[in-house]
Amino acid sequence: MADRRFDIVLFGATGFTGQLTAEYLARNAPGQARWALAGRNRAKLEAVRDRLASINPACARLELLTADVTAPHTLTGIAESARVVITTVGPYLTYGEPLVAACAAAGTDYVDLTGEPEFVDTMYLRYHEQAKKSGARLVHACGFDSIPYDLGVYFTVRQLPDDQPIHVDGFIRAGGAPSGGTVASALGAMGRLRQAQAVARARRRAEEKPRDRTVRVVAGKPHRNSVAQAWVLPMPTIDPQIVARSAAVLEQYGPRFTYSHYAAFRRLPVAVGTAAGTALVAAVAQIPQARKLLGKLREPGDGPDPDTRARGWFTARFHGVANGRSVITEVSGDRDPGYEETAKMLSESALCLAFDDLPPTAGQVTTAVAMGDALIERLRKAGISFTVLEKPPAHPPSRPRR
Ligand SMILES: NC(=O)c1ccc[n+]([C@@H]2O[C@H](COP(=O)([O-])OP(=O)(O)OC[C@H]3O[C@@H](n4cnc5c(N)ncnc54)[C@H](OP(=O)(O)O)[C@@H]3O)[C@@H](O)[C@H]2O)c1
User: Fold this and answer.
1) Atom 41 in ligand 1: residue holding the nearest Cα
2) Could you tell me which residues are beta bridge partners of residue 3?
3) Is 342 in the pocket of ligand 1 (CB under 6 A)?
4) Are residues 116 and 10 in the same domain?
């Protein structure tokens, strides 16, 4: 690995999220980091590099690598030149597989921003074993999907005893707007729910279960929640699946772990409107022509402007309970969650894999399993807070005497 030309290569550097990620690295990558920009269009890459040089003059010397998903040998070139590859080339169901294949073969660490469960499960079935042998760590969902929840639940269970059954509820509130790539990925995934379920079943059959421990995602019910101080709706995104995968590997999640994932709303009409709107979009997305029309709402490369991004924010609150002891924690950020905070989370994940002392892992792994405390530490320094709001008592309260 030490003889690789680059510590990090950013593939998709010309896209909306790719450019924000490049800017984050330009501002925050350590001076000794050897990193490069990759994409399919050299002229666009040069324009990105010029912009980065105005942020950090050293970026004028960044190398540019041209590679196209439709020419897999160019991706082999990228994977073999880097210790860690970041990719923001999505929708991942459409464009993602060749790079995962190249990284699994070359033993190169890989991070992406997918929120598409079918993609993650298909990559598990096709490349997990190969990556375990080559030593590649394939870490999907290193953005707003699913770092706040994966690391938030990891942070929460570490406040509780690990020899008791643990239940955690996660409540997410956020303000922001989507990019073209996100709209295309979400619509694509909504249009393939049956295929996604079939791949998820195949994965369940293939994946080893934890021995002597159980891990389960529990779909909650809509209700008013006092910890979230909000109306909450169950949210069947990729996040609870990722949380459960971390729990299946790490003993700190206790002998019997369950997790429920919710979207939280201060006002009931907003909760009802969001649920109805999501159900309507999911129904319309089943019709290919309608999906195309909806996709035109945001073109690829387009996304929220800097003012909108500056008004963005998120809080993910967790309520963990272990045998009567309970803890409330919160992960929060004060920038646009899907893009500025995502660029931060993705970049710090790559820097963490490249430079931090981490437990030995390989194959498809989650952020909590591959990076855990080291990544929390990095994100805290980068301005994302991980806070304990209410601690469990040091010892369980003794029973009142009669
Ligand atoms: N889960 C999260 O938290 C989160 C947050 C943000 C984004 N995302 C995901 O990230 C992905 C990117 O979103 P975005 O809005 O940044 O998309 P975007 O602006 O459309 O960028 C897509 C990138 O892919 C490149 N590309 C397209 N086809 C290619 C090919 N054949 N070969 C090589 N590169 C190719 C584009 O290159 P050109 O510039 O040359 O067209 C561009 O750089 C989406 O899947 C989105 O869902 C997820």
Assistant:
1) 15
2) none
3) yes
4) yes
397 pLDDT higher than 80: no
Q: Which residues pair with 137 in a beta bridge?
A: 363
363 CA distance to ligand 1 middle (Å): 24
346 and 322 part of one domain: no
Can you give the CATH number for the domain in which 34 is found?
A: 3.40.50.720
399 lies in a domain? no
pLDDT tens per residue across span 244-293: 999 999 999 999 999 999 999 999 999 999 889 888 888 888 888 888 88
Give the pLDDT of residue 401.
Answer: 45
Q: Give, using CA atoms, the residue closest to atom 35 of ligand 1.
A: 89
Distance in angstroms (rounded) separating the CA atoms of residues 108 and 6: 11
Q: What is the tens place of the pLDDT at every residue in 31-64?
A: 999 999 999 999 999 999 999 999 999 999 999 9
Closest CA to 123 of 146, 139, 144: 139
**Domain identity same for 188 and 295:** yes
Shared domain check, 258 and 111:
no
Q: Please indicate, yes or no, whether residues 133 and 215 belong to a single structural domain of this protein.
A: no
Element (H, E) at 293: helix 288-295
Return the number of other C-beta atoms located less than 10 Å from residue 22's C-beta.
30
Backbone region of residue 114 per phi and psi (left: phi > 0; alpha: psi in -120 to 50; beta: other values): beta
In a domain, 184, yes or no: yes
Domain that includes residue 316, residue range: 147-336+383-390
Domains of the chain: total: 2
The rounded Å distance from CA 240 to ligand 1 centre is: 24
pLDDT of residue 165 exceeding 90, the answer is yes
Same domain, 86 and 214: no
What is the 188 CA–ligand 1 centroid distance (Å)? Answer: 13
What is the pLDDT, as a whole number, of residue 184? Answer: 87
pTM value is 0.95
Are 75 and 69 in contact by the 8 Å Cβ rule? The answer is yes
Residue 259 lies in a domain: yes
Q: Let me know if residue 261 belongs to a domain.
A: yes
Can you tell me the mean pLDDT for 116-134? 98
| 323 and 216 share one domain | yes
Return the pLDDT at 399.
Answer: 52
Ligand 1 pocket, residue 16 CB under 6 Å: yes
Question: Ligand 1: distance of its center to the CA of 336 in Å?
Answer: 17
Indicate if ligand 1 lies below 6 Å from the C-beta of 92: yes
Q: Distance between CA 317 and CA 184 in Å, rounded?
A: 28
